[in-house]
Specification:
Elements (H helix, E strand, L loop, with lengths): L1 E5 L17 E9 L6 E9 L2 H5 L14 E5 L7 H15 L3 E5 L3
Antiparallel strand pairs: 1-2, 1-5, 2-3, 3-4
Length: 106
Amino acid sequence: MSLIITAQNEAKLTIKDTSIELPSIFVRLTVSMPGEKPNMLVDLLCFQNKEAQKGNIGPIFISEIKLDSCECAYPKDNSSELLAAHEAIVDIYTELGYDVEIVDLP
């Protein structure tokens, strides 16, 4: 499971310390559950494309992605913690103006 974050209007995706703008990025989440409910820790790794993510080739840093780590709530209904983390990040970046999609990568 991964995210595709797509730039929209003023919501840009610029590789840090460059002027290179990407139309979209692939994001892998790592979820840690420290056992202290109600929050999980979520780390974001950004990749330039699907091939880079699948091969774990050079995570990139995006200037506008200030949140490379965050906390989100454990799911209340015994659903997947991983899905809940993805949905929380979708909500955060959708609110910032990006188009965000959860995808399954083979």
